[in-house]
């Protein structure tokens, strides 16, 4: 098992990529702190892990609020004893153009999608440093942060920021033996914030199909395990080749 006896926090673990990460990590021997604001979704993930013989607990948390994050991290340590891995997965999207998006839309997307990664990384890194055992942080970005889009203005800006946030904290945390990386998915599973997955929805990639959540989860497992021991500060594209293609159609 690649993560035997390790403790992993996964945000947004009640659906899509986060749920698959939690399940895969548990299958690889990790004990899972399932973090989600939706209690029913989060409990579904916990129940699924336990049904397979794994160890998991739900922590209902608003990860856009520092006090809530601090309390949750303390509770996770109280339950599991330590923290080895953080997966910053949670996000919401505005799906609006510049002329449509409101200030409230912008602030909410930035808080959940970007600020949450800052807060979670800060508090978990502090715990990892206190432990003195190092750790791994994997952020979830998006190809929306690497190209212009007609919609999703705040979401695209937040995901762009995550790319360099990942590099920056990788530099800062490397002396503490904490490796930070990110994956950059494109149209994997259901759209952000939705439960419905339509595998036939149009995609522009080399494989001519939508990505599956388990494919993203396997990439995150790679970055969270010793298989990637010499990989740090990277944004790993898990996009079916989308960003390698000519996006202009010429």
Walk me through what this model shows:
This protein has helices at 16-27, 39-51, 66-80, 103-131, 153-173, 213-224, and strands spanning 7-11, 31-36, 56-60, 85-88, 135-140, 178-185, 235-238. The protein has one domain: NAD(P)-binding Rossmann-like Domain (Rossmann fold, 3-Layer(aba) Sandwich). Helix 2 (39-51) links the parallel strand 2 and strand 3. It starts with 6 loop residues before the first strand and ends in a 12-residue tail after the last strand. A seven-stranded parallel β-sheet has the order 3-2-1-4-5-6-7, with helices on both faces. It is globular and about 50 Å long. It is built from six helices and seven strands, in the order E-H-E-H-E-H-E-H-E-H-E-H-E. The chain is an alpha/beta fold and 250 residues long.
């Amino acid at each position: 098992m690649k993560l035997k006896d390790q403790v992993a926090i996964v945000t947004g673990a009640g659906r899509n990529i986060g749920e698959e990460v939690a399940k895969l990590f548990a299958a690889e021997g990790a004990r899972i702190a399932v973090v989600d604001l939706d209690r029913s979704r989060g409990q579904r993930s916990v129940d699924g892990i336990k049904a397979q013989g794994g160890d998991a607990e739900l922590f209902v948390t608003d990860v856009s609020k520092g006090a809530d994050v601090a309390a949750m991290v303390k509770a996770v340590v109280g339950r599991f004893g330590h923290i080895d891995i953080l997966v910053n997965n949670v996000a919401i999207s505005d799906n609006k153009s510049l002329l449509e998006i409101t200030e409230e839309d912008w602030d909410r997307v930035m808080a959940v999608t970007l600020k949450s990664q800052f807060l979670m990384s800060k508090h978990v890194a502090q715990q990892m440093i206190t432990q003195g055992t190092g750790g791994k942080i994997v952020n979830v970005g998006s190809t929306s942060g690497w190209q212009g889009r007609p919609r999703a203005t705040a979401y695209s800006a937040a995901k762009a920021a995550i790319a360099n946030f990942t590099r920056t904290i990788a530099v800062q945390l490397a002396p503490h033996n904490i490796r930070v990386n990110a994956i950059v998915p494109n149209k994997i599973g259901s759209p952000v914030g939705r439960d419905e997955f339509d595998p036939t929805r149009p995609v522009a990639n080399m494989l001519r199909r939508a990505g599956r959540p388990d494919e993203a989860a396997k990439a995150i497992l790679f970055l969270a395990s010793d298989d990637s021991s010499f990989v740090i500060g990277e944004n790993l594209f898990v996009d079916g080749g989308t960003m390698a293609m000519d996006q202009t159609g010429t």
